[in-house]
Amino acid sequence: MSNEPGNLYFRSLFHDNQHGDTTGTSVPVSVAGSSPDYNPQQFDPSQMSYTDCLHGFMDYNSLEKAFGMSPSSSEVFSSIEGNQKQVISPGELGGGSENNMGTTPNSSISSSSTEAGAEEDSGKSKKDLQPKGSEDGGDSSKKISKAKNKKGEKRQKEPRFAFMTKSEVDHLEDGYRWRKYGQKAVKNSPYPRSYYRCTTQKCTVKKRVERSFQDPSIVITTYEGQHNHPIPTTLRGNSAGMFQPSSMLTPAMPMNLSSFPQEWLGNNYMSSIHNQVSGAAGSNYMHLHQQNVNPLDHHHHHHQQYYHHQQLPDYGLLQDIVPSMFKREP
DNA sequence: CGATTTTGACCGGCGC
DNA sequence: GCGCCGGTCAAAATCG
User: Fold this and answer.
1) Residue A296 CB closer than 7 angstroms to strand C?
2) Of A159 and A217, more confident
3) E strand segments, A7-109
4) Angle between helices A48-58 and A269-276 in degrees, nearest 10
5) Disulfide-capable partner of A311 in A70, A84, A124, A280 (CB 3.0 to 4.6 Å)?
6) Paired residues of A198 in beta bridges
7) How does DSSP classify residue A94?
8) What's this model's pTM, rounded to 2 decimal places?
9) What CA–CA distance (Å, rounded) separates A153 from A185?
């Protein structure tokens, strides 16, 4: 299914520059600056716990362990794999906001927040119908001989990491070079899903990009695998500069959405989580609430992040692994 | 002219 | 076993 389970970190970004994607160096980053309660100091001491957890968690080795990729701890989450069946509740997506996106698509999170009924239309008329065999003459030669992986390792168990981004552009600039290798229609969605692969040789990282069928302004990006090379383009984000809310704009810093969540989970991004995500630790997802964006701020580059996590097919829930980070502050 | 995108076919897993 | 479906391949088209 299209909405396959996965840990989804929902991030919302607002950029005024339309289609600045390929240039990629001007994506502004703000850190929850518009949140009324924003208080950078509150995270540092108290939230150190989950930040710390994330650091460990996002470390790749730890990630493997935590997700049961190493044999020693695999059984820990095997149960989680078994019972995850839930689907995102559409209503939860950005429930608090009104969809006033009509004129200012880049300034507010518009959640359709419709009920599950949205899945109806579309879907029909897939062009994927059977290949009409024959005609055309000699056919058989066109078979694809894929290199078989040697026995045991069939399916890749690469960790997948998905997040949602409110963006007008489908493909977000993250500093890496990607080559598109496929596109498929998503079931129950009018929007296609694109498949990208890192162009660096020997790098097997893949990436899927699709637009939410519920809220077209939201892009769901899923990274798979781990880059084994530095970012080909320029600089990377540093947590130092972005930590202070005053420096909402960090023009020199692209989004740097790497395939690794540690970069932005490890630093101040957590503050955004803490502030903007309201979720029940017991539920399987967290719903987002939108802080009001006042029109005056349109000229600012608001880059707000929301994290929305769902279930992962292979690795279980993030909150199950690191429950502390999903606790709501009283 | 090389690199990338487009796009239909093919593959393999899964459910019926 | 067949058909659906998500994912991938690769030839053709397009881009820079």
Assistant:
1) no
2) A217
3) 8-12
4) 120
5) A84
6) A178
7) T
8) 0.51
9) 29
**Cα–Cα distance measured from residue A66 to residue A308, given in angstroms and rounded to the nearest whole number:** 20
Query: In whole angstroms, what separates CA A293 from the centre of its chain?
Result: 22
DSSP secondary structure of A16-82: SSTT-TTT-S------STT-TT--GGGHHHHTHHHHHHHHHHHSHHHHHHHTT-SGGGHHHHHHHHH
Distance of CA A109 to the CA centre of its chain: 16
| Nearest to A172, CA basis, from A21, A18, A30 | A21
The tens digit of pLDDT for each residue in A4-59 reads 444 455 544 444 333 333 333 223 222 222 233 333 333 333 333 333 332 333 33
- Here the tokens at position A283 are 């539920």
List residues with CB under 7 Å of strand B: A 127-128, 131-133, 139, 142-144, 146, 148, 154-155, 177-184, 194, 199
Question: How, if at all, do strands A160-166 and A8-12 pair?
Answer: parallel
Cα(A176)–Cα(A170) distance, rounded to whole angstroms?
15
Q: How far is the CA of A125 from the C1' of B3 (A)?
A: 33
Residue A221 has pLDDT above 70, yes or no: yes
Q: What is d(CA A165, CA A182) in angstroms, rounded to the nearest whole number?
A: 21
Only one residue has tokens 């969809």, namely: A99
In this prediction, residues A228-244 reach a mean pLDDT of: 52
Predicted confidence band of residue A228 (pLDDT cuts 50, 70, 90): confident
Length of chain A: 330
Q: Identify the helix (H) or strand (E) that includes residue A318.
A: helix A318-321
| A148 CA to centre of own chain | 30
Which pLDDT tens digit goes with each residue over A279-289? 222 222 322 22
DSSP state of A222: E
Query: What was the pLDDT predicted at A263?
Result: 47
Q: Which residue is nearest to nucleotide B14 (CA to C1')?
A: A1
Amino acid at A271: S
Give, in Å, how far the C1' of C14 lies from the CA of A62.
43
Which pLDDT does position A163 carry in this prediction?
A: 78
Written as six digits, the tokens of A71 are: 């044999």
Cβ-contact A260, A62 below 8 angstroms? no
